[in-house]
Amino acid sequence: MLLEKTQIADTGPEGQEMFVLNLGPQHPATHGVLRVKLTMDGEYILRAEPVPGYIHRMHEKMGENRTYAKFLPNTSRIDYLSAMHYTHAFVGAVERAAGIEVPRRTEYIRVLTSELNRISSHLVWFGAFLLDLGGFTPLLYAFDDREKILDLLEGLCGARLTYCYYRFGGLCNDVDDEFLGGTRAFVSYMRPRLELYRKLVTDNIILRKRLEGIGPIDATLCRKYGATGPVIRGAGVPYDVRRAEPYSVYPELDFEIVRFPETDCMARYRVRMAEIEQSLGILEQALDRLPDGPFQAKVPRVIKLPPGDTCYAVEAARGRFMVRIVSDGQDIPYRVKLRTPSFANLSVFEEATRGMMLPDALAVMGSLDLVIPDIDR
Amino acid sequence: MSVAVDELRGGFLRLLEAHATPPVPVAAESQPPGPAAENVVCQTVDPRARGYNLNVALLPSQVVAAAEFLDAHGFAIDTVTGVDWLAAGQMEVVYDYFHPSERMRVAVRTRVPRSQPELPTISRVFPGANWHERETHEFFGIRFLGHPDLSPLLLPEDADYHPLRKDFPGAA
Q: Cα distance from A1 to chain B (closest Cα, Å)?
């Protein structure tokens, strides 16, 4: 066991001995540098207090001392598994405030790349989550499939993870036939793979017993803590920013907001697996409808936004990501607020794991799909 | 429960009226006026242009009542943050809310003097605001009265500086 018994805490009210366990900051189950201070009564958790901040970089201060264009690459490094969505929110906020009309071709390409990114992010989660639960094999399958997406996006913009493909009013470059053909091939490749995942993992009785009924996070808890993404949809609430605050060309595309009412770890698992399928459907539609035309709008060389504040939210792989830009009319933002989904999703953890057994709490943590820089910023 | 933006705005206006502080009696002509009614704003805005539907500016004493009002209407806490208006000697605190089932976003904002940045916590209404307020406290030095634990969340545990204040120099 990698957990370390660090100190003896108080004696409990009935003479039971309680102790404090440190989960992390270096622990495989935390998927990064996150510490959770667990007050334990034997195998049961009395209190789980997350201690984030180990890789805090103060992105928001960086946003206040450089131009909009110079800050753009920062946004892809907040949630490194969901970089397309994050850059989308930032360029979207600037475009909204500056009143830049984005070409339709651009928005379709953004949808294509964002949905590819969502699938690759969910595949990492799938592999890592199963690894947390003790299954090694699915990781190898998931990373094999994810590699195809990384190759496609690398061919498009050069980066494999921290993409900076979107520009204010457009894109870094147009898509080529190799990307379009490759994406179409990926869609037809991925569907049978999902069937394989279902047979190999989802229908597995050991996984079911490990996840069903474990870690209920209901709709009220999500609302009170602002938990979003697959967490709130796993509580039966059809909340998806792509529909709730329509952006880009999502209103023109047909997809289902996947939700499962069971509120447990299995529901959150099912939401993500079904979302991969929905994303494949969106990819197909976007490929069929991709319009011709320019991929870059005319944008002033130096961007200055009118005074006031502007918000832009996107549905990232982990949930609602919102950028709030406050401008005082200069070419440098007065304030950039980054509202990240992992931060709010982790804040539920303490209440959701009270009285739970330790191994189950690790399953809950995995089902939240945390990315630590997304919490620490 | 369906929420219409005009209905919500009406409810907010009634709430703001009920929680209005009595006007500060002006003792001498040289004194600045107390919190005036025009400081309180409740306007609908175009979400396609601004990213929210309702913009509410109110007094620091009204933020808890506003949180309770939005809680009763089924809103979820989105985030809490600050803006340092150094030149004006004020700190702005912005509360963002979203609705899980309606296409509705509300931004509630208030201003506190920079010399004494204090206002009540809303973490009793929305426990999720606990971390957001802790973050706002460590970054701006804004104190949320009644908050259970304002120790630094993302900064080192002994941090006694507030990096997002405009008079705090950035490294770059």
A: 28
Q: What distance in Å separates residue B166's CA from the closest CA in chain A?
A: 9
Contacts of B94 in chain A (CB under 8 A): 309, 324, 337
Residue B40 has pLDDT above 80, yes or no: no
| Cβ contact B172–A96 (<8 Å) | no
**Domains identified in chain B, total number:** 1
Considering only the beta carbons, identify the residue of A224, A239, A344 that sits closest to B101: A239
Q: Which one is predicted more confidently, B45 or A121?
A: A121
Report yes or no: A155 and A282 within 8 Å, Cβ to Cβ: no
CB distance A106 to A112 below 8 Å: no
Backbone angles phi, psi at A353, to 5 degrees: -105, 10
CA–CA min distance A348, chain B (Å) = 7
pTM, whole model, 2 decimals? 0.88
Which residue is closest to A219 within chain B, CA to CA? B100
Mean pLDDT by 10-residue block, N- to C-terminus, for chain A (377 residues)?
44 69 80 87 89 91 90 92 93 92 93 94 93 88 93 91 91 91 94 92 90 90 92 92 91 92 92 94 93 89 88 93 91 92 93 90 90 90
Which residue in B49, B131, B163 is closest to A347 by CB distance? B131
CATH assignment of the domain containing B113: 3.30.460.80
Within a domain: B57: yes
pLDDT exceeds cutoff 90 at B11? no
Does residue B23 sit within a domain?
no
Nearest CA in chain B to A232: B100
With vertex at residue A106, the alpha carbon angle to CA A100 and CA A108, rounded to the nearest 5 degrees, is 125
Question: Could you give the C-alpha distances from A365 to A230, A273, A371, B64, in angstroms and in order?
Answer: 13, 17, 11, 31
Whether residue B169 lies inside any domain: the answer is no
Least confident interval from A340-349, B41-50, B90-99: B41-50
Would the CB atoms of B78 and A226 count as touching at under 8 Å? yes
Domain locations along chain A: 59-376
Answer yes or no: do A224 and B96 touch at CB < 8 A: no
DSSP state of A295: S
How many residues are given for chain A?
377
Output the CATH code of domain A59-376.
Answer: 1.10.645.10
* Token pair listed for A341: 């989904």
Instruction: Tell me: ipTM over 0.85.
Output: yes
Owning domain of residue B52: 5-17+38-145
Does a structural domain hold residue B85? yes
| B131 to chain A: closest CA residue | A347
Would an 8 Å CB–CB cutoff place B156 in contact with chain A? yes
Indicate if the alpha-carbon torsion angle B143, B144, B145, B147 is positive or negative: negative
